[in-house]
């Protein structure tokens, strides 16, 4: 896509969904460091998400996490979102923080525990109905820590049964997005460890079930963009959870650890139709800002995804295809690298200007005084966090 | 399976297939060290495989590798195998050592190269017909070394097309076994990197297409026994390529690097029906004995697989199930570990004695003088090897 | 060491130190699941450690963690330990849970924070004086999450300075044990990532500074027993933190994930003099029993280490050396595997019987009723935990 | 270093050494694909290296590999180099391709084999004398494939002894550069697996012994720039072997797999004095161009290193230091990313123009017709390669 106006149009229409929990406190098993100004309820999280959207222009959707974002009145929450120029994105279930879920939720050996877990998932669909959310996002911490602890195949049976019940409950325009993760918090075997497992379940469930690729959930050496290309080819890529990692599921800012990988991913997205609205890929962030200021970190993550997208769109597609066809390894690689080596910040600054935004969202936000304002206003109450 | 006679019966009926190329020279990219007595043609490889079967009693099948084992007269080769008490196992294709395959075989951008590759695969089916081999085993070195080098999804299209043509050619009792590998010799993206990719292709091809799990082909941290359990649950596990590894695809003796992992794998095989004849899982070795004597190394590998199987069969299934159901993590793990910690060598010695074999196949082979005999007899000619 | 009585003597004299925090609640960043009967103060932790020692006979030492085990009166704590047949082992510092340490402790850019951190370390030496503890164990969570966040070499300078001040404070019979860790909770660069870094600092500090090998702190593929052999050869191995892991720092029971690795480690310990009292290697456990009962889990960990040690001691040293000298790869490996494949549980049962203990410590503890007793007695108050 | 003229001066004085074997054929254990025009002797390799220097202007040094580059008359070879505007760089020893070295070279259990290996190393010093090479580069494939195969600590003793003898032989201006590698071709334990091992040996040898960091020789997740910073701080970084990798030691073009990592490495080099001539860091490439044209691949690798260096030099040092001191994580990371996101190709084009070179070395080389010329001229004879 070498036509600059087409590139700009694509960048203007991109939507990046930010996670409500990214604005709250988070940490490692060793310590959660609290930060001044952190939201104390879902409404304040929406306000923070709105800041990100105000400065970037491409983040109008917010993922919720239940029960962290449970409120009395979802209509009020949805209305507040709309007032802020936002809409509710995916509803993320949480079946990993109740004491009953110590040995699993939907895959637990005890049917009573499984019932409780499925009921929570069904509640999430209710919340989708109430908020207009199109996506139920499922990540399970289910798994085992020790060999022999439970029956691996039996847990798959239970998982399949639970997913089928929830899938049945979905409305026509609602999707189920199934996430996979190789490790943590289950250490020996997670119940949905890889894309193959998620894909196999989604295939059996039907067209409304799709796979979520969280960029931090793979074994070292995994080629994530291959998975992206494969799932798009199969029509089974539902969403991304963008973040970055050096070793494990570090949940750092997207693009911070390996910007070249993010670019390669966005290249596969672009060439395989993933930016077309009808493909309906949800580009979400899923991050933990443990030591850095949260709103600015989300802004930088959004602009990192934009920059990777812009570079991917600047790849000279016909030159690339010609080099690939002729088996010219260095030429083909060179076409890709030319785009990656381009500084796209001026182009994105122009795009923003044309949208009536500041050229540099990060600087503009810092200059706005919002950070100081929330730090002074949001005093007292309990800061939002992972709730563990 | 706590009944000792049932355990013994299962051990007696186990079949482990050995690879013809395991008897030839192999090495790393740095050096192939030749060994005295190495076979100089496929017939001598059969003789070596027969030695392994003579001493272990459970290795009556031999995998061939084409073109390394190409002969004028496959009927003669098959007859020779029968005379030696062997039968021909899987036919392994090789589309990675012809100069035309530098940038791929069935996924190559050039249709002429793909044609050549598919023709080779079809020739392998002819050889199956001629030898009575039930299994076509496909491993592709196809992939790319550099980002942008070729179109990832396009290569999948070509792969699917090639597999479909070969699948059509299979007879009613012939299977296609598709292997996956994360890395090497393609460095950036292999075209069948993981079980998910192999599974998705096999699913589309039909019931005769199954997945091969090579224990050395995964990313670090991958739980292989999960994959085994999952594929058995789906009816899609076709075969193992057993070997062991510390970092990459080291192709060391099975059970040498992580005997506990091999035991866990055999446990999942056992509890998910993988030892039943009707499940038709082919237990193959795929190894390179670069620095150790080859026949003895294969014998040890076979006995390592037997020991892992015996331990898996000794697990107290009802105690395990009870502990799992009650959520007693330590008890369940303890049942598994009890079996692993058992010294099963006396049991296997008894099994062998009951089969009329020596109690210790490794020692018996060394005492037989065969190693010295082949070293003195097999002089001149060209030693068999990977042929690279 | 093929002489059984010598093996038994070595097993009887082995000492495994258990961690006070292993008896308290722990978890992942997602959730800490509380368990009934968990200690509410350091005195109750000592009582639990005494249970482990009562049943295993080889765990008379307990590591403390400051501030988790901070008490008013260390003399009282030490006296209580003695009454229970225990003594105080290593004092573990904690400079990772104070809000000031968000960006580091001894390597923090701000000298005031560094001062606070060093003062804490000096306090730990005071506690060593008060309790008779011989070892100051230092693990630093210090590091950075993002490239550029701080100056890597500058942090080394600050680390060196802090270590030097604390080293100076040590008494003649006190040691500093420096731990390394590749990842978590710092994600980009930890300040003591590997044994080389710890070794280089210890070398400069002097003979009282030694390296701690935590078996869960390495990159995938690292050969830990090589490090053990190398450090013993250099006289710089101070201690182990035993635990096991599948992917990251899972802190599972020692020997649970890879019993063969634990055996190989103990083999290097044994052949390089690490079991000799004068080598003064401290064999500690450092584990988190997130989902399994804690005292029984520690007992199993202790017996796992004992079993690995017993197997290592049973290796036929002269046969091994002969095979190694002659370059007989399979024979040498076979000698090692013979020992590993031996079921040493009967031998250890005998050892225990000769010590006046029950043959099976795990079963004996479960039968003792202690678990039920503490669950009913330890009600109210705040359960001990990681305190994060 | 924000002063553009200083940046340019640094870029002009940078020297990147290219490996003679990078111009010859190479491959994987599966296949070596020959390429047209590949050199047939060391003199032709020099001619190819001269091409790289002609177009990049920063590659006047060539590493030799003995015995691959063994010639009758080293004076003639050196003179030829000078005529081509080159000088001889490091002499790389090869003690891994002789049949005697199957179980090791300097660490082999047999003293006769060790003698042979040390003699080869001493011969390499003779060649240094003859060619004016300043550096003896040592990489050992020594190690073991199976647990128990040999005595880990004993092999360290033999290694230390061999290194000491060779170190003694060095002249005043000659250095020993010791390389480490975690895996391959030894699979279980390599004898110099990590920087810590190399560092410990170099420390004992003395000031002329320094460590080589090959960017492809680490475990996954290793922070290479930390090692670089640490070794520079210790005065023990002797050289780089640049290349890139996705999983193992892929030996791809430097900067191809992770350009951000290469930038981070060059940042640590720059801020820790590694670009100063007196630090004497040798910036070498060590790569295998298995499927891509070799001279152009080396040119791209050189320009990739230049681009990473340029970006590192453009980092606003005072802004970075200020942000680091104040603990502003996002600001500090932002300063680094600003430099990385800059397109430095125009700057490098200017640098080249000022040196009288073409702005784009890759394009200029391709336009020169040299590739076609060598393909037509270098026919017959035996192509140079790894010689395995």
Could you describe the 3D structure shown?
Chains A, B, C, D: Its EC number is 5.3.1.14. Chains A, B, C, D: Residues 71-273 form the Xylose isomerase-like TIM barrel domain. The structure is a homotetramer of 388-residue chains. Chain A is α/β, with parallel strands linked by helices and 388 residues long. Chain A has one domain (13-313, 369-377): TIM Barrel. The first copy, chain A, has helices at residues 4-13, 42-56, 74-83, 111-131, 152-169, 195-205, 224-233, 259-271, 294-314, 317-325, 329-341, 345-354, 361-368, 370-377; strands spanning 16-19, 61-65, 87-92, 135-138, 143-144, 175-179, 189-190, 209-214, 237-242, 282-285. In chain A, the strands form two sheets. Chain A has an eight-stranded parallel beta barrel with strand order 1-2-3-4-6-8-9-10, surrounded by six helices. Chain A has a two-stranded antiparallel sheet with strand order 5-7. The radius of gyration of chain A is 21 Å and the shape is globular. The first copy, chain A, starts with a helix and ends in an 11-residue tail after the last helix. Chain B binds chain D through residues 26-34, 96-97, 99, 101-103, 141, 145-147, 182-185, 187-188, 220, 245-248, 250, 252-253, 256-257, 290-292, 386, 388, and chain D through 26-34, 96-97, 99, 101-103, 141, 145-147, 182-185, 187-188, 219-220, 245-248, 250, 252-253, 256-257, 290-292, 386, 388.
Give the averaged pLDDT of chain A, no decimals. 97
Helix content of chain A: 40-55%
What is the number of E strands of chain A? 10
Oligomer: homotetramer
Looking at CATH, which topology of chain A would you report? TIM Barrel
Which two chains touch over the largest interface?
C-D, 61 and 61 residues
CATH classification class of chain A:
Alpha Beta
| Largest beta-sheet characterization of chain A | 8 strands, parallel, barrel
Overall form of chain A: globular
Radius of gyration of chain A: 21 Å
Query: What sequence of helices (H) and strands (E) makes up the elements of chain A?
Result: HEHEHEHEEHEEHEHEHEHHHHHH
Total domain units of chain A: 1
Strand sequence of the main sheet of chain A, in spatial order? 1-2-3-4-6-8-9-10
Name of the CATH superfamily of chain A: Divalent-metal-dependent TIM barrel enzymes
Please identify, by name, the CATH architecture of chain A.
Alpha-Beta Barrel
Annotation field: number of helices of chain A:
14
> Which percent range describes the beta-strand content of chain A?
5-15%
What are the segments of chain A in which pLDDT stays under 50 over at least 5 consecutive residues? none
Class per helix and strand makeup of chain A: alpha/beta
Distance between the termini of chain A: 46 Å
Protein name (chains A, B, C, D): L-rhamnose isomerase
Domain Xylose isomerase-like TIM barrel (chains A, B, C, D): 71-273
EC number (chains A, B, C, D): 5.3.1.14
InterPro entries (chains A, B, C, D): L-rhamnose_isomerase (IPR050337), Rhamnose_iso-rel (IPR013457), Xyl_isomerase-like_sf (IPR036237), Xyl_isomerase-like_TIM-brl (IPR013022)
């Amino acid at each position: 896509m070498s036509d600059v106006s087409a590139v700009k149009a694509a960048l203007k229409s991109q939507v990046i969904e930010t996670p409500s929990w990214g604005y709250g406190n988070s940490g490692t098993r060793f310590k959660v460091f609290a930060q001044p100004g952190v939201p104390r309820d879902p409404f304040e999280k929406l306000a923070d998400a709105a800041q990100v959207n105000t400065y970037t222009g491409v983040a109008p959707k917010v993922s919720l996490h239940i029960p962290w974002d449970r409120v009395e009145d979802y209509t009020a929450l949805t209305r507040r979102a709309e007032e802020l120029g936002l809409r509710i994105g995916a509803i993320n279930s949480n079946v990993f923080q109740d004491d009953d879920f110590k040995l699993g939720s939907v895959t637990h050996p005890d049917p009573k525990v499984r019932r409780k877990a499925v009921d929570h998932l069904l509640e999430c669909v209710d919340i989708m109905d109430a908020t207009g959310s199109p996506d139920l996002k499922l990540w399970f911490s289910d798994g085992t820590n020790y060999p022999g602890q439970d029956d691996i195949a039996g847990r798959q049976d239970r998982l399949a049964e639970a997913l089928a019940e929830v899938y049945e409950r979905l409305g026509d325009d609602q999707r189920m997005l199934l996430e996979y993760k190789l490790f943590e918090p289950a250490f020996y075997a997670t119940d949905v460890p890889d894309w193959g497992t998620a894909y196999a379940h989604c295939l059996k469930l039907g067209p409304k079930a799709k796979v979520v690729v969280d960029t931090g959930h793979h074994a070292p050496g995994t080629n994530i963009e291959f998975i992206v290309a494969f799932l798009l080819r199969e029509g089974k890529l539902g969403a991304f959870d963008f973040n970055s990692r050096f070793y494990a599921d570090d949940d750092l800012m997207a693009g911070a650890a390996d910007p070249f990988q993010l670019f390669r991913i966005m290249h596969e997205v672009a060439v395989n139709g993933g930016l077309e609205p009808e493909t309906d890929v949800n580009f979400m962030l899923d991050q933990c800002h443990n030591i850095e200021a949260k709103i600015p970190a989300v802004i930088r993550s959004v602009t990192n995804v934009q920059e990777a997208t812009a570079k991917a769109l600047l790849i000279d597609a016909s030159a690339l295809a010609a080099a690939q066809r002729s088996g010219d390894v260095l030429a083909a690689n060179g076409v890709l690298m030319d785009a990656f080596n381009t500084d796209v910040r001026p182009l994105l600054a122009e795009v923003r200007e044309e949208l009536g935004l500041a050229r540099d969202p990060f600087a503009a936000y810092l200059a706005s005084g919002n950070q100081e304002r929330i730090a002074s206003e949001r005093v007292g109450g309990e800061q939002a966090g992972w709730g563990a």
